[in-house]
Amino acid sequence: MRWISKDRKLIGLILMALPWACSESPVPSEQRQQGIAVDQGTVGRITVRVLYRGTAPTPKAIVMGSAPQCALAHEAPVYDQTLVAREGRLQNAIVYIEKGLEAYGFAAPTTGVEIDQKGCLYEPRVAVAMVGQPVDFLNSDAEAHNVHGFPQSVSSWNFILSRKGAKRTLTFEKPEIGIRVGCDIHPWMRGYLGLTTHPFAGVTPADGSVVLEGVPPGEHTVAAWHEMLGAKTKQVTLMPKGAVEVDLVYGE
Question: Which CATH architecture has domain 2-250?
Answer without folding.
Answer: Sandwich (2.60)
